[in-house]
Structures are given as C-alpha cells and as structure tokens.
Design a protein that fits this description.
With 418 residues, the protein is α+β, with helices and mostly antiparallel strands. The chain is built from 11 helices and 18 strands.
C-alpha cells in the first residue's frame, strides 16, 4: 500500500503549478505505489520502474514496471494502473495449454506466440532494459490521463542527466521541471506504517546497545563493538519474531583519535557507537559514547556540556517550531557552556527510507522548514576531538500533535563500562 498522502500531494503540486509527479528513484517508486521496483533497480538508473502521481487525488496512480513479475504486482496492488516494458529476462507462460500430443518445443513456441498476440516473429529483448522504451509506455499512460502536454515534476535529485535527456527526447511535449522539493516535502511527513517501521528499528537498535555495553572488555576493538551490537540486534529480532529487519549499519570508534579506525579498549578510553537498523527499508539513527573505567576531566566536561545542549535543543523541537531555531537553541547552549568554537553544520536530520540514514530536512542554521506532526528526526550533539575521542548523543524521535515522542530508551550520560 502506498504511503503517499494524496491530499497533501495535491496541495504541494498546485502550489507549484504542477499537474503530476513522475518518480524514477526506486525508493520513491515504492513510496508512491507500495510496490518493489524490481530487479532493474540494481542499476540505480531511471526507467526501470516509474510511478505517475496525478495532482487529482481521485485519479489512479500509474506505474510502469518490468514485465517479469507484473502479474504478481497487479494482484498485490489492483488499485494501481500498471503498465509494463520488457526486461532482459525471458519468460513464457504455458498455463492453460494442453501438452498432450505435442512435443515440448512446439508447446513452448505456441506459448510464446500466444504471449506475443499471435505474431509469428518474436521481438528481441533489451540487454537489460530500455529506458526509452519504458518512457514510451509512460507516454501512453500520460495521454490516457489527459497529461499529454502537461507540466510535470520529476525527481531530478536522483535522475542521472543522461536519463533526463532520454526522457525529454521520448516525451518532448511535456514540460518537465524539477519536482524534488515537492517530493522531499511529501516524504518528510511519515505515515503511521512508516513511523511503526522506524519505531521497531529503534527498539532493535537499543537491544544492540545493551549487548554492546554488556560485552565490552579491555583489549576489544571497534570490530568487536560491531560484533556485539549486531549480535544483540539479531538476537532481539529473533526473539520478537521481527521479519522486517533488512539491514544494519554502524560507525564505531575507540580511543583518542575518533577517525583512525583503530584503537583498543584501555582504562579511560572513549567508545563511540553511531548505529542504525533498517526495518522494511526504514532507518533508525542512534549514537552514544561510553568510557571504559573512569573518564578524564576533559572528556567528562565536554560530555556534560553536550548533555545540556542536547536537552536545550530537544526542548525546542515541537510542532510549529522552525528548524533553524532548534539549531540556535543547541549551539547557544554550547556557547553558554564556554564552547564558542563548537558549531556543526547541523544537529540532526529527517530519517526514513533513503539510500543513507540522513534525509532532508536538516536541523541547520539555514533551514526555514516548520516542524509538523508525523516528521521523524534524528537529533544529535556530536563532538570529535583528537586527543579526546568521539563524544556523542543522538536519539530518533517523532514529532507529535502536542510535542515529541523519543523512540530510544537509553541513558544520555557518559556511562562507565568495565
């Protein structure tokens, strides 16, 4: 099922005088249709799977997909106006044919001809897929929806320049414009299903943190941290019967050089874990720092300032607030604590189903985005200092009608291990 809010889409499209959106990034295709983009998505190019979202919320969403499993997709989402283009993979359907009295080659050839409308010759298949051919099918879909000469937004933040040229050549009567901002503003507010995926991802991630902190001993390395955390996530997923876990990622560090990639656990060492789980394609994003034994004075003082700044920024996150104000509240607290040189480019970002863990919009000084209920964010106050280590606090959260819901349940203090 699509997570797209059609009424919100109509408002955003009308504001920009757009008649429709055409979406070609695999993640955007799935967002609009609720369907997988299929095997052509591996090339990360336009044309493998394309979604059409008319501005009229009563009009059907259209999709152009490879012919390999189109029948399965049609059964899965009968509300989608589904069209196909040929892939490189050969497929023939002999269902309904009687094999008695006919040899195998003749039977299969008959099936090919039936699938080809009875024609005696068989068109060649493309090496992978043809973007131009897929866009020609999209053109049929546009004409049937009265959009043959429309003004249409396309996800240009994804589409390669060569593919955009192919699209314009295939459908020159369309006024193609960048629809990326519309798409970003649509995707920044999540559906209940999307929020549930992120909530489940955060719960699994927290379980990994508990396994990590329980397992760490002197001599362990960042690789051991990864192993403990991932094993904890996997055990939690199995215990909960979580079948939607599709991936994990992590950035671990140990010791006074946060970007060295090396280091081992010794008394006083700072350990940083910045991690995420991916549930049904949706990312969590959480980070914590720990100290093995007692921290030195500098690490303790910096982390205490980060906690104050985190609390100040978190208090500013509410529906109706502007993102830059959250940024200023956070950096202002660090200034007040005596750290005027500490000024990151952002203190967090949206999270969802993207290639990476960070999505637009960002909690940055130049952001005029107003926070809305349903936005899912990762809010963070990281500090990296050579000779100190990586000190960081990061939680995932949801903006609600009345405030926020933090999706992690971990201490934000500099917890001592060992």
């Amino acid at each position: 099922m699509s997570d797209l809010d059609r009424q919100r889409a109509r408002r955003l499209l009308n504001e920009r005088r757009l008649d429709a959106l055409v979406l070609t990034q695999p993640e955007n295709f799935t967002y609009a249709t609720g369907l997988p983009a299929g095997v052509p998505a591996m090339w990360r190019r336009a044309g493998g799977a394309t979604a059409l979202v008319p501005s009229d919320p009563e009009a059907r969403i259209g999709a152009v997909v490879g012919d390999l499993n189109a029948d399965v997709l049609a059964r899965r989402a009968p509300e989608i106006d589904l069209r196909t283009h040929p892939l490189w993979i050969d497929l023939v359907d002999i269902d309904g044919l009687d094999p008695v009295g006919i040899d195998t080659a003749a039977l299969v050839t008959h099936a090919y001809r039936r699938d080809n409308g009875g024609a005696a010759s068989f068109p060649p298949r493309p090496t992978t897929y043809s973007a131009a051919g897929a866009f020609a099918v999209l053109g049929d879909l546009l004409r049937e929806n009265g959009l043959a000469r429309a003004r249409i937004g396309v996800d240009l933040e994804f589409m390669p320049a060569a593919d955009f040229l192919t699209l314009k050549q295939a459908l020159p009567e369309i006024e193609w414009v960048d629809g990326s901002e519309v798409l970003r503003r649509l995707r920044m507010v999540k559906s209940p299903r999307e929020i549930d995926c992120i909530r489940r991802a955060c719960a699994l991630s927290d379980s990994g943190f508990h396994a990590l902190t329980a397992g760490i001993q002197a001599g362990h390395t960042p690789r051991d941290m990864t192993r403990f955390w991932r094993d904890g996530v996997a055990a939690a997923a199995q215990a909960r019967g979580e079948t939607g876990l599709t991936g994990m990622w992590d950035y671990m560090s140990v010791g006074p050089d946060p970007w060295s990639g090396g280091g081992s656990v010794v008394p006083g060492a700072i350990l940083k874990a910045d991690v995420g789980c991916i549930v049904e394609g949706y990312n969590s994003d959480t980070a914590r720092s720990y100290v093995f034994g007692a921290p030195d004075r500098i690490a303790r003082d910096v982390h205490a300032a980060l906690e104050v700044a985190f609390d100040a920024g978190l208090a500013a996150i509410r529906p109706g607030a502007v993102m830059r104000d959250v940024f200023e509240a956070t950096v202002g607290a660090m200034r007040a604590a005596g750290y005027p040189g500490y000024r990151r480019g952002h203190y967090g970002h949206s999270i969802g189903a993207s290639v990476g863990s960070e999505e637009w919009p960002f909690l940055a000084a130049d952001s005029d985005v107003v926070l809305e209920p349903g936005m899912t964010l990762a809010f963070e106050t990281p500090f990296y200092g050579k000779g100190i280590g990586a000190l960081t606090i990061e939680d995932s959260l949801v903006v609600t009608e009345s405030g926020i819901e933090v999706l992690n349940a971990l201490s934000r203090h500099l917890v001592q291990l060992g």
